[in-house]
Design a protein that fits this description.
By secondary structure, the chain is an alpha+beta fold. The protein folds into 2 domains: about 130 residues, PH-domain like (Roll); about 55 residues, no CATH class. Helices cover about 35% and strands about 30% of the residues. It has a 4-stranded antiparallel sheet with strand order 1-4-5-6, covered by helices on one side. It has a 4-stranded mixed sheet with strand order 11-10-7-12, with helices on one face. Strand 5 and strand 6 form a beta hairpin. Helix 1 packs antiparallel against helix 2. The relative contact order is 0.17.
């Protein structure tokens, strides 16, 4: 039997993100209070208040982003989970929960209520692995870079299910749906 391993990156939350957001709000409110009645100052304050959140929504690597990639690697196998130098043996893990949001570049067809057909894609960074190890909960938002990474994590999940441990799995897309979309849109399976 082939041993499947997923080596990927995960998010950490920026240490000073909250301070940046508070300063941003203070500066924006300052423009409104300084510009009492001055239309140009109010317009400038409105631009400062609205611009950065719009920029953050469009550009994923933004000064205003609350999270960044961690320098450590996340390694997941059927036998252990490793985060940087910390290794968590599967036999000592008490429970696992995983949410799969999809892999980077996964394209899918979607229908609107009006009946029109559209397309969507996934960024691959909306996946969460949480587990309880020696009474402490660990949680990681991780990245699936391609279809091969998705297949690897699915094989690992299947092995975990067979173990009988407390396990919760939630998938944004069923595996059958993803296989169907890979057949429909062959670029979905390209690495």
């Amino acid at each position: 039997m082939q041993e499947h391993t997923l080596t990927t990156v995960f998010y950490k939350y920026k240490r000073y993100a909250a301070v940046k957001m508070i300063l941003y709000v203070i500066i924006a409110v300052g423009f409104f209070s300084v510009g009492k009645g001055n239309v140009y100052m109010i317009l400038l304050g409105t631009g400062i208040l609205i611009g950065p959140p719009i920029f953050s929504a469009i550009n994923q690597k933004s000064f205003f982003s609350l999270r960044a990639w961690d320098d450590r690697k996340l390694i997941v196998t059927a036998d252990y989970i490793q985060v940087g130098a910390d290794k968590y043996e599967f036999e000592n893990i008490q429970s696992i929960a995983i949410y799969l949001g999809g892999y980077y570049g996964f394209s899918f067809g979607k229908s609107s209520k009006s009946g029109s057909r559209g397309y969507g894609s996934v960024n691959g960074d909306d996946n969460v692995l949480a587990f309880r190890y020696k009474g402490k909960t660990q949680s990681y938002e991780f990245f699936l870079r391609d279809f091969d990474s998705y297949v690897a994590i699915c094989h690992i999940i299947d092995a975990w299910k067979k173990s009988g441990k407390s396990f919760v799995l939630k998938e944004q897309f069923s595996r059958d749906y993803i296989r169907d979309q890979v057949r429909t849109y062959p670029q979905n399976s390209q690495s």
